[in-house]
Amino acid sequence: VRMIRRLLCAKTYKRLLNNTTPTIVKTEVASGTIQWQADLADVPLAMTLDAGSQNFKEVQGQLAVALDNHNVTVMSLDDGSVLNTFASRYGKSTIRTSSIAFRDGGSLLWTVGTRYTGDAEHRTYISISAWDVARGQRIATAEVPGQVMSTGWNPYGTQLATVRYFNTVPSGQKHVPWAFHLWDVKIGRAESTLVSSPPKTE
Question: In whole numbers, what is the pLDDT of the chain averaged over residues?
Answer without folding.
Answer: 76
